[in-house]
Amino acid sequence: MATTDAASAVCNAIVHILQSSMAEYASELGLGTIKPSFAVYQSDDFSNPDSTRHIASGASVFLYRALPNLSHRTPTGNLSPNGQRHYSKLPLDLYLLITIWGNNPSTQNRLLGWVVRILEDYSMIPASVLNIGSATPIFEDSEAVELLLSEMDGEELLQLWDMLGEDKLPYQITIPYLVRNLVLESRRVMPVGEPVQVRTSDMQRLDGAP
């Protein structure tokens, strides 16, 4: 059960996985001189080459959609140590676009193969990675999230890309990913009424009976 910072933590964790893996394999891949970089993008970064997050070679992570996961019943809220129940948890599916950037076709195509292979090795991202960089834990130690290659209609992808690039940015290789059933816990506690002491029927109240 994750806190409301979970979506941000997932995106940052993917960037961390790619950065740390590239640091390990850059020489072996012959990409040391290119120095690929990785960043979490927002929509403006696609059309703004002056953005501080702009990538010449590497990959960007863009969260473009979040929908409720309807495949399971809504999980009940946590029970606090004092016996109070929190509001129901919220299960979400996160839809991501991983875009490959390269200064030439060979670099871009090689990065594509490397990125999808590395992320396949981390199809389950543990809490130890998800909580990196956070002052307080976002995920419990026993938690993990599932990262899956997804599907997206080609026309939908191109339409989305046109909007992100504002018709000024040439299309770059983009792979859809899905983070499935990310469960957000509530911090609110459900109100508890006073204990029932006298049970009175509706008919008694209407008749004025004691």
Walk me through the structure:
With 210 residues, this protein is α+β, with helices and mostly antiparallel strands. A 6-stranded mixed sheet has the order 1-2-3-6-5-4. Helix content is 32%, strand content 23%. The protein is globular, with a radius of gyration of 24 Å. Helix 2 links the parallel strand 1 and strand 2. The protein has 6 helices and 6 strands. The protein has one domain. 20% of the residues are buried. The termini are far apart.
Q: What keyword list fits this structure?
A:
210 residues; alpha+beta; 6-stranded mixed β-sheet; 6 helices; 6 strands
In summary, what is this structure?
The chain is an alpha+beta fold. The chain has one domain (6-207).
